[in-house]
Amino acid sequence: MAAGPVLAGVLLDHFWWGSVFLVNVPIVALALAGIVLLVPNFRSAAVRPLNPGGMLLSISGLAALAYGLIRAGQVGAWSRPDAWAPIAAGLVLLAAFVLVEARTKEPTHWATRR
To answer: Residue 46 phi/psi, 5° resolution?
Structure first.
């Protein structure tokens, strides 16, 4: 992590400012090639239907929870309603997600991994 600012300074001294963004292109290309060559395909042969209820509950629950935590950090107080209300709503939505997925015939894929 310490090499990042030093390398950025060297690039800015010797090249144009956009070079700090282009330095990552070879690294990303190498990582993508490694993924294609080394990571096996674990895709299931069975096609499963989408679960819009589960998706909506999980996305909205995680979004409300994240917003509440961020808001609590911004205002510096956990006791304010604009901080704890989204956190509570997010936890309720995530609990509803767990209950719905436990009773669904074909739950969301990641919930069924062993």
So the answer is: -80, 130
Contact 58, 95 (CB under 8 A): no
Cα 109–chain centre separation: 17
84: CB partners within 8 A, 6+ apart = 68, 72, 78
Q: How many CA atoms lie within 13 A of 28 on its CB side?
A: 5
Nearest to 57 by CA among 92, 93, 86: 93
- In angstroms, the CA 69 to CA 74 distance is 9
- 69 backbone dihedrals φ, ψ, rounded to 5°: -65, -40
Predicted confidence at residue 90, as pLDDT, reads 97
39-95 residue pLDDT tens? 988 777 777 778 888 899 999 999 999 999 999 999 888 889 999 999 999 999 999
